[in-house]
Amino acid sequence: MKTNNIRIFTLIAIAIITSLLTFSFTTPNEKIIGIWVSEKDSDNKWEFTTNNKCYQYYEGEETDIYSYNILTTSPQCGYQVKTGGSEDFYLRLTNTQGDEYCYEILGISDDVLSLNYLGTGGYMVFNKQ
Amino acid sequence: MKKIIPYLLILAVITLLLTNCEKEEFNESTVNNQQERSKVNIKRVDLAYLQQKEKLNKKIQKIVNALDVTKKNNQKSSITTNDGSFTILTNEILEVTTDSTETYTFRIETPTDGASSFENFVIEKIKDDYSYWIYRFIELTEDGVDYSYSVNRQPVDENQINLGDFSNILKWLYISEGCIYYANSTGMAYIDGASVVCPGSGYDDEDNDQSGGGTTSGGYTGGNGETDNTGNPPNNNSGSGGGGGSSSGTDTSDPILNSPVGVLTDIDLEEDLPCKTSKEYLKKVFPDASDEILTKLAGILNKFGKDFGIDNKEKLQHFLAQAGHETGDFDFIAGEESLYYTSSTRLLTIYGKYFSNTDTINKRKPDNYLRNSSKVADYVYCCRMGNGDEASGDGYKYRGRGVFQLTGKNNYTNFKTFYNEKYDPDRDFITDPGLLKTNDTVAVISALWFYKKNVLDKITIDSITSVKKITKKINGGTNGLKDRKKIFNKAKDSINCN
Prior knowledge:
Distance between the termini of chain B: 66 Å
Helix content of chain B: 25-40%
CATH class of chain A: Mainly Beta
Oligomer: heterodimer
Shape of chain B: elongated
């Protein structure tokens, strides 16, 4: 009986730890995949794909295509940024015209992506479509 | 015989004036006020014209008891006081008439008072009464930059020049794109729905060339006690400033300035700006914004826009589209970032990396930050954008302010460095960052600085530059693009400064 209890406890513990690890270690690279709609302007949509492309749409029309990377280093776009924290992630968009846009990821979950455009204050919140 | 000599001298003076003054073309424009109650006619005239008017000529003859001609040439005919205290140039005279008033404005060569930026001599006729005035225009300074003028006037006695009793400041003048605005009360550096007129009226480049007056600008200032003139700008404004457009406002409550009066100065009131705008133009773009805000905005853009490379209409149109969106169509000029949260969910949504209800080891519980702007700002803005740690208080101190919400100690420092070098070495936005919120001029300059740094220095703006491209540089995305485009299209229709 005692052995059974230990087994059950161990299984439950493993299940909990596994689920926690799965939840915690879903990387921003995985979480960001999908279509995101701006909370402030529903005409503004960003789509991140697994091949590191970011398609931007406005009023249903594609407006820009960027390559994207999620980085943890400093500087980004010429700005010194915090590094070393478990959630210090930065999104960088680049295109073939040489444009570059960098954002601090203020928060990312299955439902919400919150970005700060580096060099400015404030935030942009997107909801997963 | 001795009794006759003075009269002969006076006669000689008049003769000299009649024979030596240039014949100048008249350029007339008419101003209709909104209520069609009275017309204001502006004419550029010469001394001979005045002397053809019998009554006025008598007055001129009378005043030569105090004023005498001592020098003259084709370029600069003038009248100098007998005591040599000042000289009135007669090579250009501005006649401003209404149904019941006439004024004749002359430029005084050198101000009678060192504090004056420039002075005018004005003959004023109301009904059948003539009076003589010296108008003193004194440039004011706001925030270390020249901004507006105050005007005093002093009566000049017909028989002797009396310089002993200048009256108090009567009015504050604000001069924007060559238009003269009177503020309703002292202490204001901007107009508050008062008389608006543009000196371009009745003047064009050809006239100025004829006058030999260099950059002389002319105009008239509104004001009304008895005549109901509104002082509206002319409809056919042909001045180089292009101001024009209709403008409203009458200083009908002004008991001191009795009639519209011309303004003549060597100071270039209509600076040769590469891209000027006006309250009237801005009103077409932002119809719901107050006249006060738009007048001030126009003045600031005209004064400082060139310093930031706004030298064509597209650059100005794009700036207005972005700034207009950020300020709610200029419902206000200077905004301030709010970090006042009343919901834990909201804090978790925006700042997921900083707040958590479960991971209290790496993050903080949002409940402890509700209804506490400074605590939120010090935490989420800590240690970035040049800010120190939480204890430094930099996050809240350098929160978003101004038209484009300048944020972070680095931005404030860089802006301060620029401002100190360009305008005022004593202005310190590090110790007094609130100026970006409380001072509209600083707020707009901060936006112009941000616009240059983030847009003009990075991309070329021309007629095909899209609003989206500018928006991405300002906003980092395309939030509000539809509204920004809407404002831009209005600006495109209304702002044409090239």
